[in-house]
Structure formats: C-alpha cells, structure tokens
Amino acid sequence: MFELDLRSRLPIYEQLIEKMKELIIGEVLKPNEQLPSVRTLAQQITINPNTIQKAYRELERQGYIYTVKGKGNFVAPILESMQQEKLEKLKEELLKIVSEAMYLGMKKEDILQIISSVENMLGGGNLK
Amino acid sequence: MFELDLRSRLPIYEQLIEKMKELIIGEVLKPNEQLPSVRTLAQQITINPNTIQKAYRELERQGYIYTVKGKGNFVAPILESMQQEKLEKLKEELLKIVSEAMYLGMKKEDILQIISSVENMLGGGNLK
Amino acid sequence: MFELDLRSRLPIYEQLIEKMKELIIGEVLKPNEQLPSVRTLAQQITINPNTIQKAYRELERQGYIYTVKGKGNFVAPILESMQQEKLEKLKEELLKIVSEAMYLGMKKEDILQIISSVENMLGGGNLK
Amino acid sequence: MFELDLRSRLPIYEQLIEKMKELIIGEVLKPNEQLPSVRTLAQQITINPNTIQKAYRELERQGYIYTVKGKGNFVAPILESMQQEKLEKLKEELLKIVSEAMYLGMKKEDILQIISSVENMLGGGNLK
DNA sequence: GTGGTCTAGACCACC
DNA sequence: GTGGTCTAGACCACG
Predict the structure, then answer these.
(1) Which member of B27, B107, C117, D83 has the lowest number of beta carbons within 10 Å of its beta carbon?
(2) Which residues of chain D have pLDDT under 50?
(3) Closest residue to E7 by CA to C1' distance?
(4) Strand duo D72-75 + D65-68: pairing
(5) Which nucleotide is nearest to D60 (CA to C1')?
(6) Is the CB of A51 less than 7 A from some atom of nucleic acid strand F?
C-alpha cells in the first residue's frame, strides 16, 4: 500500500505525507476513518515509529488528519475555515505553474485533460 | 538577475540550476552565449565559488551548457527533450495541485478563468 | 453545559477540571450545591467514568469540591485564595500575550479599546 | 541562561520555545543575530540535540527564527506579512483573557500596570 | 492499546 | 563546521 523509496532524496516522512494526502484527496481514506496506528504502520513498512510520527504530526498541522491522544489518528473532514485560506494559496500556485507551462508551450487542451482526469478520480466513479 | 533564497530548504546550487534552466529554455540566454565566469558570478551574488562550480558542472552533465577549457561556459543549443522533460514535470505538479484544489471545492470554472488570465498575459508579447 | 474538545492536546480530565473551576469561581455552581454523579455525567457527555472520577478527585484535592460518601459530590464554599490563584494565572498569561502583541507593534490604545469593550459587555448584567 | 525544569509537565522543547521567544521579544537576541548551534546548545544545557532541533524547527514555523542550512539559525526580523495575521489572533486571545479576568474582579488598573511593565521592557531602557 | 517525548548515536548534504 | 534525517529503544500520560 505504501511504496517508499528509501534511497530517494526526499525524506521518507515527506514521501509518507504525499502518499497519505493522495489517499485522503482520492477519498480512499474517508473522513473520520481511523488511520493505522503509529506502531502498526511502522511495523508494516518496516520503518521507525518516530518517522511515522513526524509525518502524522505534519499532516495534522496541515489539517488533513486529527489526533485523539490515546485513541489514534483520524482523517479530518474538510473544514470551511481552512478551506478558504488554502484555496487562495492554491490559486496562486496554479497561476504560477500554468503561466510557466503555457509559456513553454503547453496547450489549453492539455490542461483540460488534466482537469478531466481529476474529475474522474473524485467523481461518482471512485477508482478504488 | 539571479534571486536566490538563502533560507530556502532547496540547496542554493539547485536553485541556481533551476534558474539557469528556465533562462535557457525560455531563451533569455541564447544558444552559444557565454555564461558569466564562476568567479564573477560568485562575486555578483556573493556566494561561494564552489557552489557555482557545482551548479555549472551539473548543468553540463545534463546537457544544458558546455565548457571550453580556458574559455568559459556556454549555453548549449536547446534540445526538444529538455522542453519535454520540463513540461512533464509541470504536468505532474499541475495534477497534484488541481486534484487538491478540486477536492477542496474549487470549480472547473475557476481554473478556466485562471487559464484565460494567463492567455491574456502571454497573448501580447510572447518572446518565442 | 460541558463542551469538551476530544482532539485537544489537554487531557480531557484537565479540561473538565478547568470548566468546573470556572463554574464554581463564577458562582454558576453555588456553594454546597450537589454535582452530577460520576455515572450520570459520564453518560451525559459520553465519556469514560474513570475520567470523571479523576477530575472530581483532583478538584477535591484542590479544595473546590467535597465528597460525602454515599451521598455525592458538592461544591465547596469559595475561598478567596481560589480567586487569587486564578487571577495570578491570568495575570501571567496577560503579561505573555501583551508583551508579544506590543513587540509586534500593537499600540497601547488598541489594548485600552479591548478593555473598554469588555467593560461594556460586563457592565449591564454582571451576575456577581 | 536557559533554566529548564526536567520534571515539569511541559515538554522541555516547549520550555525552550518559551524561553527563546522571551529572549527574542525582549530583544536580548536581536534580529539576524545567530543563535547557538544545535549541538553547542545541546552540550551547554546537557540535553539531546534532537530536542533542540524540535524547538528550533517550531520556532522557525512560527516565524521567530530562520534557518540557513550549513550556516545556522538566526533571529528573524519582524515580517509585516506575518504581523497582521498574528496580531489578529493575539487580539482575540486578549479579548478572551481580559473578559475572564475582569469578570473575576481584576481591575482596569491592574491591566494598565501590566502594560506599563511591558513598555519598560521593550522601551529604550532595555533591562539587559 | 494509543500518541508524545526523549536519549544516544549514526549518516547525510551543504557551505 | 552547520542543520536534517533516521534508527533503536526507552518511559510517560491517557482512556
């Protein structure tokens, strides 16, 4: 389930964060679903629990999961408060990347295709 | 010309590489144009010459520049593969950001609007 | 009546203690009034009875409530020392926040305005 | 310089954060001044370097210090961007604490006194 | 059982 | 030299 590249330049806790985000955004992990415990996951992917911890704490800070001490970590439902703020940031990022991409010759159609593929992923027909 | 962020998590030699690549692909630096020498550039942006060296060596390895001993470093002619490589990276980034944005509720229209604004911006004086 | 935050970093028994203290010092709970039994309260706020127990025991130790075996738990008469203790804590907090705010450029007037607005708010129907 | 209470309930990395904030806010540590290195500080106060790291990273996240890899950690100058955001939060906190304090009988004069003491600390006459 | 903190010691990239 | 990451193993508080 979690394929990590131990040799990668990206620290493995960041790889973990990315993977988890994908699972949450792709709604493979549903809101309020419990995540594997720090220890269990550590054993499963044979990695130190501290490393999982680091990833989980960052995900919590970013609002993707929430922690109940003594219980576990859970997928956060989308909060409106964080939503607006975050969307603004994403819009800025989008603007930057889109302009760079189009400057280098990417066509409007290429971007539309990306949007479509995302719609399929998120839409009724969950790929899972 | 080269705005570097010393505080960034990216090593500055990598920031240099990225900047140079963009200037080369965007043809701000024309093929066979001579690059500033390691020493002068180091002085200009007050950075350790070793760091510049490292960036130049890596750019040469990747085929973006070539070195003539005793003369200096020069911009290599652009290969399509370079643009392609860059565009692939941008596509991946786009996919990530778009899916995150749409998960948080951004509408297709919002993205289309961003595209339009970029089109307008580039529409007038595209250098290419 | 008791709004607890299960996700908070503060253990919930401490949250309970703080809430109770405020209710007692603010005289929402009057001296010698009977508190809800451990079980009923546990049911009401759907929390482990052990947790309630722990809070009650600590409140007793600190002199805020007293226990009559076979009868239940009761609000102790307020001692000045309790108010004093609480006020000291608040003063420390105030000092920290005020110094941080003024370091970041908040003006004395801004704080005075906050005080005024609080005075207005309390002015009308102070329970005490 | 750093008196830590190893027995305290507050984790020592949080104690460190508080101390550092005080030093920065009190301008004992001036903007762009270099902080002791992770290792040095660790030796000085005989604490594990990882613990210092944790404190430094959090301070960076909160905008109090910035890190230059390979160089060290430095006191951040006040950024306007973070300022506005943070001040809003502080105002809310202030409102909450002030209203609680005044409800419990704290006088306007007590608060004014706190403000004065802060003014002295920050003003021309640095206590150091 | 859960997460949170801490230590000791190691290796890496960067400058 | 600096910070950044990771491991192994320990102890604690919480529910």
Answers:
(1) B107
(2) 125-128
(3) D48
(4) antiparallel
(5) F3
(6) yes
Confidence of residue C53 (pLDDT cuts 50, 70, 90): very high
CB of residue C56 closer than 7 A to nucleic acid strand F? Answer: no
Cβ distance A68 to C6 less than 8 Å, yes or no, reads yes
- The Cα–Cα gap between D69 and B10 comes to 9
Contacts 24+ apart (CB under 8 A), C80-83: C82/C21, C82/C24, C82/C25, C83/C25, C83/D104, C83/D105
Give the Å distances, CA to CA, from B119 to A99, A115, B49, B96, B103: 8, 17, 40, 22, 25
Distance A49 CA to F5 C1' (A): 13
Nucleotide closest to A49 measured between CA and C1': F7
Angstrom distance (rounded) from CA B111 to CA A121: 17
Domain borders along chain C are 12-75, 80-123
Å from the D61 CA to the F6 C1': 21
CATH ID of C12-75, from 1.20.210.10, 1.10.10.10, 1.10.287.110, 3.40.50.11540:
1.10.10.10
Residues of A in contact with C11 (CB under 8 A): 69
Nearest DNA or RNA nucleotide to D10 (CA to C1'): E5
What is the tens place of the pLDDT at every residue in C4-34?
999 898 999 999 999 999 999 988 999 999 9
Q: In this structure, are residues D94 and C114 in contact, taking their beta carbons and an 8 Å threshold?
A: yes
| Through-space separation of residue C128 CA and nucleotide F6 C1' in angstroms | 58
pLDDT along chain A (128 residues), means of 10: 87 96 95 96 96 97 93 93 90 95 92 95 60
Summarised one tens digit per residue, pLDDT across range B36-69 is 999 999 999 999 999 999 999 999 999 999 999 9
User: Are there at least 3 beta-carbon pairs closer than 8 Å between C and B?
Assistant: no
In tens, the pLDDT along B82-104 reads 999 999 999 999 999 999 999 99
Chains A and B touch (3+ CB pairs under 8 A): yes
